[in-house]
Amino acid sequence: MLTLPPHTSHRLQPLDKTVYGPLKTYYNRAMDGWMRSHPGRTVSIYEVPELVKQAFLSAMSPTNITSGFRATGIYPFNRDIFPEEDYAPSMVTDRANPEDEPSAIADLPGEEPSTSAAAHLPGPSHVHVTAGPDPGEPPATLPNPEHSSSDESGCSAHLGYVSPEVIHPLPKSTERKNRIVRKKVKTRIVTDTPEKMELEKAHKEKEDKKA
């Protein structure tokens, strides 16, 4: 017994590889042939089973079925049936989460802390950086990531991370209007004698009012 992992059926499902494609092709051919033989008519649900039968017998052949297991590497077993580039989309999940990165940079012993490291050290709400090309200029002020503000969704704005909700907020629902209270009715069989007589009586009263 073989279990197909999630998001792999387009590669490991034998029917998807070699059966459903020909089935669609043969069905379209059968549909075109029927429309040429019956000009001006519309295909109904009564003709569809016959058209599907023709396509089914052509597509569900032993050759197509067995080739599906061979094309997916199931039987005969072939672990190298897929090239390395087929696994490229999964590489996106190997990237680290920005919020999980360390918020402080450790300097080597005996060295002065760098400006980038000083900007990540805990302290007041702002860190004053005095290093610069011109000592006469006022010190630049950088926000401290440890005390950075957070948006309403709780996502911190430090380390360059921007929540999608900040760029495109979720729409707010409008006030709900008063719902219409419908009259409760019960299921009934209108062909029963009591129900039929009641309907006829109501219809007769309606006609008398019009008259």
How many β-strand stretches? 2
Physical arrangement of strands within the biggest beta sheet = 1-2
Silhouette: flat
Helix content: 25-40%
Count of discrete alpha- or pi-helical segments spanning 4 or more residues: 8
Strand fraction band?
under 5%
**Secondary-structure element order, as H and E?**
HHHHHHEEHH
Radius of gyration: 36 Å
Q: Please give the largest β-sheet.
A: 2 strands, antiparallel
Mean pLDDT: 76
Span between N and C termini? 76 Å
The secondary structure category is mainly alpha
Unreliable stretches: 104-108, 113-133, 138-157
Please, could you describe this protein's structure?
The protein has helices at 9-12, 14-18, 20-37, 48-59, 62-71, 115-118, 164-167, 193-210, and strands at 126-129, 140-143. By secondary structure, the chain is mostly helical. The protein has a domain at 27-74. Helix 3 (20-37) crosses helix 4. Mean pLDDT is 76; it is low at 104-108, 113-133 and 138-157.
Quick gist of this model?
The chain is mostly helical and 211 residues long. It has a domain at 27-74. The chain has helices at residues 9-12, 14-18, 20-37, 48-59, 62-71, 115-118, 164-167, 193-210; strands at residues 126-129, 140-143.
Which helices and strands appear, and what pairs or packs with what?
Blueprint lengths: L8 H4 L1 H5 L1 H18 L10 H12 L2 H10 L43 H4 L7 E4 L10 E4 L20 H4 L25 H18 L1
Helix pairs in contact: 3-4
